[in-house]
Design brief:
- With 317 residues, this protein is α+β, with helices and mostly antiparallel strands.
- It has two domains: 4-139, 3-Layer(aba) Sandwich (Aminopeptidase); 148-310, Gcn5-related N-acetyltransferase (GNAT) (Aminopeptidase, 3-Layer(aba) Sandwich), CATH 3.40.630.
- 32% of the residues lie in helices and 29% in strands.
- The protein has nine helices and twelve strands.
- The chain has helices spanning 13-27, 35-42, 93-112, 129-137, 176-186, 198-206, 236-242, 263-277, 295-301; strands at residues 4-6, 51-56, 59-67, 76-84, 118-125, 141-152, 166-170, 217-221, 226-233, 246-254, 282-288, 305-316.
- The protein has a twelve-stranded mixed sheet, sandwiched between helices.
- A hairpin with a 2-residue loop joins strand 2 and strand 3 (59-67).
- It is globular and about 65 Å long.
- The two termini are 31 Å apart.
Length: 317
């Protein structure tokens, strides 16, 4: 069977969405995408080197994409995402896509950070045996485990006990830089995390259509210094499929000098009550099980329970 391989373009987004719908129907990992989601995603990659679509007679049956990091200090961490239509699996396409991925990652990397170390990460949901097998066959190593945790907002919510001298305020555009600084400082020692530049923070976080500023919050000292953030996303495509509104907590961060003093717990109590008042049925987040700050315990105390897991596979290129 002969396939056509070419970069993805804006005109391919509808077919891309159809492919991902077929993949979700088979893998059932809870990921749904709208056309606008994919258009924004396409804007995050190198338009020529960063994507690859595979067509069979004009039908998009597989794709791959590589995403560059914002900095390379000390090394450059890139992320990859791809899928093969369930009807086209176990024909060697997954392995060929991984070969393309490694080559594309090296090309993009050398154009941005020549001479710096490069590692490639891919996240595979538990139960997706096909994707895990493809990653392992390509030489990628399972390195880190993550949980996706969900909180039913119909059950009793925790009470907020914010430490004295702090206040919780809604996110506003004037807090864009402050939230970036809190996130970078709080995640400086987190596995797989790289700092955001002002450009990448806007392009990949607060400037995305899914970012919900009205559902996001910042903790500040009386001086106005920001010391904690809870930023939420809302994915309309998920609601269209499930019929339920879900607040996705994208980032929770507390500066080190305020950790262990109840700041994160107070942010959760405040945000969960707000989510319920806005008609959300549940809140969801992801956590690195190896997180050394005790985040997993904080989330469990806030009522979150593990709904599924994922494994990070890594290749040092």
């Amino acid at each position: 069977m002969t396939f056509m391989w070419a970069p993805l373009a804006v005109d391919d987004v509808d077919q891309w969405a159809e492919l991902l719908t077929a993949v979700e129907a088979e893998d059932k990992i809870g990921d749904n995408y709208s056309r606008s989601d994919l258009l924004q995603d396409l804007a995050l990659v190198d338009p020529v080197e960063g994507t690859c679509g595979v067509w069979d007679g004009g039908r998009l049956v597989a794709f791959g994409a590589v995403y560059a990091g914002s900095v390379a200090d000390p090394g450059h961490i890139m992320r990859t995402w791809g899928a093969v239509h369930p009807a086209y699996r176990r024909r060697g396409l997954g392995g060929r896509l991984m070969n393309w991925t490694f080559q594309a990652a090296r090309r993009v990397h050398e154009g941005l950070f020549p001479g710096r170390p490069l590692s490639l990460h891919v996240y595979v949901h538990d139960g997706n045996e096909w994707a895990g097998a493809v990653a392992r066959a390509a030489g990628m190593l399972p390195t880190r485990t993550f949980y996706v945790m969900t909180r039913d907002l119909a059950t009793p919510l925790p009470e907020s006990h914010l430490p004295e001298g702090l206040k919780i305020i809604p996110y506003g555009d004037d807090l864009e830089e402050a939230t970036r600084e809190v996130r970078n400082a709080a995640f400086a020692d987190h596995w797989g995390s790289t700092p955001h530049t002002a450009e990448s923070w806007r392009k990949k976080v607060v400037g995305l259509e899914a970012f919900s500023g009205k559902d996001s919050f910042v903790v500040q000292e009386e001086s106005g210094r920001s010391v904690g953030i809870l930023l939420a996303f809302y994915y309309a495509a998920d609601s269209e499929v499930t019929g339920a509104r879900e607040a996705w907590i994208q980032t929770v961060a507390t500066l080190e000098d305020w950790r262990g003093r109840g700041v994160a717990g107070a942010m959760f109590a405040h945000a969960l009550a707000h989510f319920r008042s806005e008609g959300y049925g549940k809140a969801t987040l992801a956590v690195d099980t190896g997180n050394a700050t005790g985040a997993l315990g904080v989330y469990r105390r806030a009522g979150f329970e593990v709904s599924r897991g994922a494994t990070a596979y890594v290749a040092d290129l």
